[in-house]
Amino acid sequence: MKRALPAIWLVVLLTVPWWLQDQYILHVLITTGIFIIAAMSLNLLLGYTGQLSLGHVAFFGIGAYASALTTLGFDVELFGFRVVHQPWPAIIGLFIGMVVAGLSGYVIGRLSFKVRGAYFVIVTISFAEVTRLIALNWVELTQGPLALTNIPPYTLGFPGLGNYTLWSKVAYYYLVLALGLIAYVVISRLVGSRIGRAMIALKENETLATSVGIDVTRYLVLAAVVSAAMAGGAGSLYAHYLKIIDPDIFLFIYTVTMVIMVITGGKGTLAGPIVGGVIFGFLPVVLRPVAAPAVQWILYGALMIVIVFMLPQGIVPALQRSMANWSRSERKGAIAPLTDSAKPGEGQ
Amino acid sequence: MDQFLQHLLNAVMLGGTYALLGIGLTLIFGIMRVVNFAHGELYAFGAYTVYLVAAALGLNFFLGLVAAVIAGALLGALIEVVLLRPMRGADIDTVMLMMIGAWIVMQNTELLVWGGVAKAIVTPFPDAPLVIGPVSISWLRVFVLAAALLLIVASYVLIHRTKLGKAMRATFQDADTAALMGVNIKGIFTVTFAIGSALAAAAGALLGPVFLVTPTMGDLASLKAFAIVILGGLGNITGATIGGFILAFVEEIGAGYISSGYRDAMGFLIIIVVLLFKPTGLFARAERVG
Known about the structure:
The complex is a heterodimer. Chain A has 2 domains: about 25-315, ABC transporter involved in vitamin B12 uptake, BtuC; about 315-348, no CATH class. Helices cover about 70% and strands about 5% of the residues of chain A. Chain A is built from 14 helices and 4 strands. Chain A has a two-stranded antiparallel sheet. In chain A, a hairpin with a 3-residue loop joins strand 3 (about 155-160) and strand 4 (about 160-165). In chain A, helix 2 runs antiparallel to helix 12 (about 270-285), helix 3 packs parallel to helix 5 (about 115-135) and helix 11 crosses helix 12. The radius of gyration of chain A is 21 Å and the shape is globular. Chain B has one domain (about 10-215). Chain B has helices at about 1-30, 40-55, 60-85, 90-115, 140-160, 165-175, 175-180, 185-205, 215-230, 235-260, 265-275; strands at about 130, 135. Chain B has a two-stranded antiparallel sheet. In chain B, strand 1 (about 130) and strand 2 form a beta hairpin. In chain B, helix 1 (about 1-30) packs antiparallel against helix 8. The interface between A and B is large, with 37 and 42 residues.
């Protein structure tokens, strides 16, 4: 049963567009999926290396803008030189978005990891706010508050089959699902590897990790680059799906959304961001008919406080614990120690 | 030159209230090790309290200011007792997340109660500005600076000349030892948070009439307060005071000579530069409060 669970989930997710008629719900699924990818990337930093980056939306936004600008082209004057870029296909924008976000992750990571704790948090917020203000004020490149509009959808080229442009929601749903699965596999491979163990070691005790020869800064920067590139990819998906982006994409509240998803689901678990993401992605759907946006946000905030109070580890670890207890009593006294290898619902 | 003098004067006027924000946060951050994301919401709360008393109820403006400070202190004490006291000993990130939750709740409550439209507070000061040679300044801003300086001096006296201040400084240095010496740590934490919140509310109450009052006014205030605290060094009141004036000055110069759009970016650039090159702040002594 436990082994079949991931396969069942996959079948359910794959068949969604067949039995789901409601276009609004499909739209929510797509945006939720995009934010889950972003939350998974944040989890790599927050959950596995233990660094609370509150500037994560910067990478999401940089990926979105880089991808959109690659696709739309631009013509700006920079230090007296005129830089002109002709429009490229949108799918190249996705890669450029990821590369640019990854590079920013490298630079910002290099600089920010000089400090820790509260100072790290504040530096990362500062970087995100500076990026937002640049997007808002560099009108020649970004159109500022007028937003970049008419961002074309991706076109996938299949050898021998011709091109396919993703005009429909269903097509985007499958793209987000596919990229989400790739992101999931990449992260689970990474954290299960030597690199992942090094990251967890430095989260647990940085001094000790250093003393056994782990190059802390190197692993932190590596995590930041992978995480930023993934968030950038999510940003690109967001831009090409919505076809419009403005500097509000950099708002702190989006970082907070990602953080709530990770914390609620359970930081440092593979399933955590997905569980948290589904909850906070669909909460607005449930609340929309009954509560004004301000009330919804009040409930989010209150929920965040309650979860930090009651379930500081998040939902997934709590479920794992109760399921472990359940299976223990099931086997009538057989000892089932709760270790990291016993993670129900995650698949091995 | 005249333009520069005008910028300088504007910076001094703004710097006083920035210093209040910074002192409030540096006390909370320094003594309680709480990264208080709700600090800016206390600032907004102060501004809305003045609006409530002076504009909505039509009472005296100065009464509104006093009410804002008292209400800020009470709300701060409430937050400390309800949210922070049970979380003592939890790690700094957990408490930070909780304060982010509190920030979201408070901001959206303001949005719900007052609506998203910016409110203007009318003051009893004359509209005609005070002109000194080439520069001019509104009477309201003169009053704001005077009131801010008064509160800054009051905080100094409180921290350095009273028994409570002595207990606060002792708690900052070593909470356990202070507790052994008979300091009521729980009480000190509540009082610290209340004082910090009152100062933030005072800053909001003073700047609210100068600018406009909106539900999101607290966002930048929180981040600016962090910039000031980082500039001045943790728990350093003198540092926070000077840091407030420096931030105001850099913002004015940045807005005046570079681009007004990047005004708010200055604070963040300060944070990045200071933390990367001198993480202990510009006025670091041995870590101590005062």
